Amino acid sequence: RREAEAARAHSDCVMADGRRIEIFANLASAADAVRAVEMGAEGCGLLRTEFLFLDRTEAPSEAEQAAAYGKIAAALEGRPLIVRTLDIGADKPVPYLPIHGEENPALGLRGVRLSLHRPELLAAQFRAILSAVPMHQCRIMVPMIVDRDELRAVRAIFDDAAKAMGISAKVPFGVMIETPSAALLADSIAAEADFLSIGTNDLTQYALAADRGNPALAAKIDPLHPAVLRLIAQTGIGAAAHGRWVGVCGGLASDPAAAPVLIGLGVTELSAPPSVIASLKAKVRTLRLEHCRAVAERALAAASADEVRALLKGDF
Ligand code: PEP
Ligand code: MG
């Protein structure tokens, strides 16, 4: 029986009606990657590269980054690795990246904005990724995008780095949808991005105007809020118009109760911490798309997150 369970944990995740949903892992270290594979992850849907950049006095060298990315890719044994470019801002003290006097770091020079402000750091990160991650595993993802023009600016830096290295292989280049702007403009972004991955932590924070780190607000910040779900729906529509896949790598992907709604809104990839991979697969295997769509439609019409939660409890 244990063998059968292990085989199930490691086999692909297929819905009850035969549709494939990819279950990936969020990682922040090589140890995480080993654990993710043990737990049955089909790849990495979000590598948070911040771990390499925090708690130090100077930026990690290209060689150091390459060694770390290479180790993680190797631990994934050929599975896809979505590397997110550096996502930090003034909320995290990094002495070699002085960001001065921001009153609102969440609305400041963070994520892709910082990368475009310091393009030499971004180029170095791209070179490290391209030199260390085997091409068949390599995917790039950019955080905090608000529109297509930012994507173009980052991609130009990537293309230059790849060209200078003599790399002609096409590396899938995606963006995180974690600002309301990006969700609303998902159609124009999807025209030029290879995939979209929804960051529900930030998307919720920005949609509900509620600091995700403020404990006094924690009870009110629910990513199943219908306002957030409508942004996710818009993302699904925009991606479908261009035949792109949509995933979720924010915390909502870890909640098995949310899977029917997300799948009903067009999501085909869920990326979550290694510890929840098995329960997520088990839940998704019980679902049918037609039913997910009906649930999603009702969730979109709800007036509050509590209403959505009640709906999901009643239904599943
Ligand atoms: C998110 O915002 O949902 C996300 C996955 O990114 P992070 O939590 O690293 O900001
Ligand atoms: Mg985020």
SSE blueprint:
Blueprint: H1 2-10, E1 22-27, H2 30-38, E2 44-48, H3 62-75, E3 81-84, H4 112-117, H5 119-132, E4 138-142, H6 148-164, E5 173-177, H7 180-184, H8 186-190, E6 195-198, H9 200-207, H10 226-241, E7 245-248, H11 259-264, E8 269-272, H12 277-284, H13 289-300, H14 305-315
Parallel strand pairs: 1-2, 1-8, 2-3, 3-4, 4-5, 5-6, 6-7, 7-8
Bound molecules: phosphoenolpyruvate (PEP) and magnesium ion.
Magnesium ion binds next to helix 9.
Subcellular location: Cytoplasm
Family: Belongs to the PEP-utilizing enzyme family.
Protein name: phosphoenolpyruvate--protein phosphotransferase
3D structure, described in words:
Its main location: cytoplasm. Keywords: Cytoplasm, Kinase, Magnesium, Metal-binding, Phosphotransferase system, Pyruvate, Sugar transport, Transferase, Transport. This is phosphoenolpyruvate--protein phosphotransferase. One of its GO terms (molecular function) is phosphoenolpyruvate-protein phosphotransferase activity. This protein is α/β, with parallel strands linked by helices. It is about 45% helix and about 10% strand. The mean pLDDT is about 95.
